């Protein structure tokens, strides 16, 4: 049985997710832990549950989602996987980290690349991958259909969508790919976003003011 644990880290209130199954193998998404207390919270949970991390996965590489990359790689010796289009996004973080209040940010390098034609396998679990650009050029979404779990990053939120005014953003692309790649998932799929509370595909198809049936735009 696939289990999910969420943590909210850093001033951006970013959601970090750990997924694991009965084998105790796990993957971690978007570690936003920056302060020592945040790092220890995540470390203690992984140790307490007896988890073995297999992969570190970034849905995308904006600063709030990668602050803990180096910490996770160093402590668990796991590979960092991103989409190739996120390379410039990740590399740019060091240039502005101090301006955002993160002078101790540590650079992390990807070890391999993922695209939408791949799956992520750990334990007895296989995650499917979809590319949903618009908020970021190589933004990936990961889902497990039978468990109704979708790690959506900053694509789709409860009643909102990701911002598209950052470098590499494209509003039209985000709308198009949410409709084609996310709204084609089952209505009862639970969306776990990069910020805020979870929602469902069905609810957002009906009520989201940007991309739902009642969209204002």
UniProtKB/TrEMBL annotation:
Residues 13-195 form the Metallo-beta-lactamase domain. SMART domains: Lactamase_B. Keywords: Hydrolase, Metal-binding, Zinc. Its cofactor is Zn(2+). The keyword Zinc applies. PANTHER family: HYDROXYACYLGLUTATHIONE HYDROLASE GLOC (PTHR46233). This is MBL fold metallo-hydrolase. It comes from Belliella kenyensis.
């Amino acid at each position: 049985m696939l289990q999910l644990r969420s943590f909210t880290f850093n001033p951006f209130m970013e959601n970090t997710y750990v997924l694991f199954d009965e084998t105790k193998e796990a993957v971690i998404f978007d570690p936003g832990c920056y302060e020592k207390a945040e790092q220890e919270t995540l470390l203690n949970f992984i140790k307490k549950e007896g988890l073995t991390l297999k992969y570190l996965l970034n849905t995308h590489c904006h600063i709030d989602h990668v602050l803990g990359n180096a910490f996770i790689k160093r402590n668990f010796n796991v590979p960092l996987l991103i989409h190739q289009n996120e390379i410039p996004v990740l590399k740019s973080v060091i240039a502005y980290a101090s301006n955002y209040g993160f002078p101790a940010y540590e650079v992390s390098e990807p070890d391999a690349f993922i695209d939408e034609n791949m799956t992520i396998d750990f334990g007895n679990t296989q995650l499917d991958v979809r590319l949903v650009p618009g908020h970021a050029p190589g933004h990936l979404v990961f889902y497990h259909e039978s468990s109704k779990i979708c790690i959506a990053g900053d694509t789709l939120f409860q009643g909102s969508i990701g911002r598209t005014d950052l470098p590499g953003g494209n509003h039209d692309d985000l709308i198009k790919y949410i409709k084609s790649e996310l709204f084609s998932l089952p209505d009862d799929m639970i969306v776990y976003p990069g910020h805020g509370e979870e929602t469902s595909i069905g609810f957002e198809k009906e009520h989201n003011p940007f991309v739902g049936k009642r969209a204002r735009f």
